Amino acid sequence: MATFTTIVVFLPMILVEDASGSFSFYLQRIGLPVIFALLASLVVALILIPLAATKIISRKSVPELGIIRKSRETYRKLLTVVLAHRLDTVLVIVAIMGITFGILMPNTPKADENSGNISDFFIRFDLPNNYTLDESNEYFKIVEDTIAANAARYKIKAVDTRFRKSRGRIRVFLEQPKKDQWYGAVYRGMRKVLGLTVHQRMEKNEVLADLKERLPMRPGITFRTSWRGASEGNDEGTVSVTLHGDDTGKLAELAQEVERRLRLLDGVISVETDREEGGDEVKVVMNRQIAQRNGINPNQVAFTLMYAVRGINLPRFHAGDKEIEIRVQFKEEDRQNLEQLKNISFMNRSGRSVPLSALASFSIEKGFGQIPRENGKSFLAVKAKTTRSDLMKISRQIDRVMSGFELPFGYSWEKGQRFRRFRDQNTSFSSSLKVAIIFVFILMGILFESFILPLSVLIAIPLSLFGAYLMLFLTGTSQDIMAGIGMIILIGVVVNNAIVLVDMINRRRREGLTRHEAILDAGSHRFRPIMMTSFTTIGGLLPMALGNAALIGIPYAPMGL
């Protein structure tokens, strides 16, 4: 029964739909090998171990160790006290559950699979349009020298630089952490748990934060530490706020205020608006009062400029059996610069000619390279790169800095893709946890031939969650996707000892003992095997909990804790 309760907790990965996809991805790759290993161990336990026991175990009686005997006697006395104060015991259990779900769970850092430490990062630069290639080369040499001066401290393996006149990017490759022997990782892990100093190399986000302060700043040059237009899910350490509305220009104005607010977040390295810039554009803003005073319609001005600069095709002219294409547009030499545009004249209501420069103001701005739309509305994302990994805390901080942000009618904002995926992961985790508990309950009900006895076994689950969250909280370890998988596996593991104990109590009851006597006798007889299975499980998980093994930058340690 104990083996099947461990196996059955992996069924949610098949039955529960995972919107994010990542939770089931890891659960399948961890769960399937465990299932086959458990089935193999079941065959060994039922067939090979009894056969080996007949040849290996001696008939000679082995005296029980004094420490085990004293521990069992102490446990029997404690169990007697618990049975004599059942109401107090229930209150203690309720208090433990309250601490678990009211204090430990909300205050444990929450992280997603993007919190791993992948060993390379990009810095992208935007340079003024009037820069020459030689000037760009000079600037990037200074940047490379700055990086080289700190290469030893940052543990940099290589630097790849690519640039053109107006933009460029630098990719920094960090050295992979050396694979320590298991005892070295265990030693450092124990020092970390005890709160002692642990000397470690700088992580990627720490390198980024330090390098940002050292990069040379020049007028007109901006840089960012994330790919513009890249998916937030592929950009480690980045969170975003997405604005939705009808007008992209208005979204760009609102994004400036969002940038200012996101810079108030703790641990922010850089903030940028995720927009692809086009070329320089001339922005013409009409002075409506002057235009109205002259009797000039702004639409008339807009169409005139469109005809003059961009041109427009008129219907084809038929001359006999020929068709002649007609296009209305200023001559090329009449539309070469901004002064020619300002001198375009319009007739006012009194018949006098008024130049465009007297009707409007002019400015040169970067245009949009593209205008993304979703569900019929434009959207614009503002990204913030942060050194923090607790997504739940970051989410609360974003809610705080964005509070009071007034938007025009028809405009809205929401937290970005990474938060949506994190929410989907939490939903999948909660659903998998519930389904696993239900499956374990049903399986025990069938094997016990009762649905009352399994309730006494399930009490071990919230108590085990108390231990799991307490370890995460005390060690400052984030509850990430590995910790979630570990908690689901924990459901099948922790009920094993309870199953063994309840089964023994049932046997003693069938032999005629009272309920009180059966509980004390079963607890005394099963104390040693329960302690053996518990300590062997703990011993097997210690290398994982204190080691440095990782999958795609995501450590296994939280699953072992």
Verbal overview:
By secondary structure, the protein is of the alpha+beta class. The protein has 3 domains: 2-58 and 65-112 and 421-560, Multidrug efflux transporter AcrB transmembrane fold; 119-235, 2-Layer Sandwich (Alpha-Beta Plaits); 280-368, 2-Layer Sandwich (Multidrug efflux transporter AcrB TolC docking domain, DN and DC subdomains). It contains 20 helices and 17 strands. The protein has helices at 2-8, 12-15, 22-56, 66-84, 86-107, 133-149, 151-154, 182-193, 204-214, 248-262, 288-293, 298-310, 338-342, 391-402, 417-448, 453-458, 460-475, 481-510, 515-546, 557-560, and strands at 120-126, 156-163, 167-174, 222-224, 238-245, 268-274, 277-286, 312-319, 322-328, 345-347, 353-355, 360-368, 373-374, 377-386, 412-415, 550-551, 554-555. Strands 5, 6, 13, 14 and 15 form a 5-stranded antiparallel beta sheet that branches. A 4-stranded antiparallel beta sheet has the order 2-3-1-4. A two-stranded antiparallel sheet has the order 7-12. Strand 10 and strand 11 form a beta hairpin. The longest helix has 35 residues, at 22-56. It is elongated and about 120 Å long. It starts with a helix and ends with a helix. 25% of the residues are buried. Mean pLDDT is 78; it is low at 227-234.
